[in-house]
Amino acid sequence: xxxxxxxxxxxxxxxxxRAYFAAVDRATEQPAVFDPGKHGAFALSSPPAxxxxxxxxDSFQRFCRTNTGALRAGAVGAAVGxxxxxxxxxxxxxxxxxxxxxxxxxxxxxxxxxxAPDPSADxxxxxxxxxxxxGVLGGSTASQIVVGVGVVDTFALGDLVAVDxxxxxxxxxxxxxxxxxxxxxxxDVNHDxxxxxxxxxxxxxxxxxxxxxxxxxxxLLGGTPPAGASVQKVMAFVDREGGSYFQEWxxxxxxxxxxxxxxxxxxxRLRPSVGAAGMQREEPVEVVKxxxxxxxxxxxxxxxxxxxxxxxxxxxYRSYFPAVAAGVY
Length: 329
Prior knowledge:
By secondary structure, this protein is mostly beta strands. The protein has 2 domains: 141 residues; 128 residues, no CATH class. Helices cover 5% and strands 40% of the residues. The strands form 5 sheets. Strands 6, 7, 8, 9, 12, 13 and 14 form a 7-stranded antiparallel β-sheet that branches. A 6-stranded antiparallel beta barrel has the order 1-2-5-18-16-15. It has a two-stranded antiparallel sheet with strand order 3-4. A hairpin with a 4-residue loop joins β19 and β20.
């Protein structure tokens, strides 16, 4: 056997992939940026802001559907150059955990909070007329919602709550911090003052209370509630097959290092798409017969992003962080 340098640890070895998402600013269409130089070595349990950890995923598959063509010339039509066709890329995977954001991404359209109903409300599949909202007082933060003495007893430990502004007839994107829906006409949402809280991502669980405030288990994703916001109990989450609204998020997928380098796949702009087996499919994962866990199948279309370093359009970045002492090539 010939001598030479040892080519060690040049294979990324992993057991699973972890998913992180961050909201795209829908007003400017600006995605969240993952810079490998600044962010690449983060602890998987503590992603850098604004990335949100959505847990381990299964069956992660990427699809590059961008065609390449050849320029041909001469008597024999030999290839003398190449060109790329329209950018086209997609990916699919199964969320192993169910939560509001996982469900919203898997369904791809408006995702609804089922607000605590008014006792006299008509039954509706996405929740009927809601019980009265409670105003949020000054001094509230993303983790502490001030509602006042006595009023705080309206809520119990463990309650889910939605915190956002009243709907006042505005059109366009609605939802504090993260666009949750798009309203074309106030009549479409029945001029419902609670509509923004029906769709908002500002949802959290009550983990504690003071004499005047609710203490939340996790900070509201949209940050401090806006002036004039209100809070309501949430009974459940519901999504629908169909709908006119399209979610748009930045996605980051990291293969954990088992005994090798880290591989990261960054998609600046992802929108829901119909995958190979269709959207809104629950994938059963056997635990112990007859018990199965239900995974949420998610499929996405990658939208283009302009790399300002060289003016090239792209849909995905793949970065690799070699293990210590690994060969370079």
